[in-house]
Each structure stands twice: as structure tokens, then as C-alpha cells.
Specification:
about 80% helix
Amino acid sequence: MPNAAKLIAALGLAALGWIVSDMIRALVPFSVDFGWFNYVNAAIGVLVGWLFLGPRVGQGITSAINNGITSAIVMVILGLLSQGVNEMVRLSFARRYDTPFEAIAAIFEISLDYGMILLDMQVILTLLGGGIVAALVAEALGRRWS
């Protein structure tokens, strides 16, 4: 698939990552320092759009809808894992873990805890709808530019 479709998919999912990150900020207590949260999630959106959604453009509208939903799910999984790794590293510098295996297991526990925040219906609908819209726009523009 042409790079233009990959670029549109990457930009669409980056925007989706940024929007959902802002929605998540509103669901978390005020004492949390988010740091690079939005930027990391937007970068994950770029990667998923370029490497996952972009190459699948050009297979039709039904496939675009399925790929958009799948891309949103992949973004969530990668986002949860990256934030879990970030928190594990922070806690490991505070000497919270005794062994490396305990630290690695904590990544998944922390990711599951963060995933519970995402069970808000507005966040879920935004992720699914945004993934579908990004895929449909990439599909339409991919047809036009190929």
C-alpha cells in the first residue's frame, strides 16, 4: 500500500491516542503526574497506524471497519503495557521488587489495574468509533492516491 495511506492511518490513530489520553486524565485523581502520557500514547498511535493499519488499507470497507476496531484494541494493549513498564521502572527504582521476575510480573498487574480505568463507556465508544473512522478515512484516501 502507498505511504500516503500509511501516513493518514498513522495521523488518525495518533489523534485518537491523544484524544483518549485526555479523556483518561479526567477519570484519574488529580494527584497523578501524567508527564509524557499524551505524547507516548500518540506515538503508539503513529506506530500502530503505520505498521498495522496502513498496510491493510485497500481491502474494502468491511475490512477497514474490522481493521479499525483491531487497531484500536492493539493501541490499548500497547498503551497499557508501555504505561505498566513505566510504572514498574519507577517502582523498581524505589526498590519495591526483590527479584526481576517479580518486577516483570508487576508489569501485567499494573497494566490490568490501568485497564480497569478504560472500562468507561465513553472511552470505549471513542476508541472503537475513532478506530473505525481512522480506518475508513485511510481506506478512502488510499483508494484515491493509489
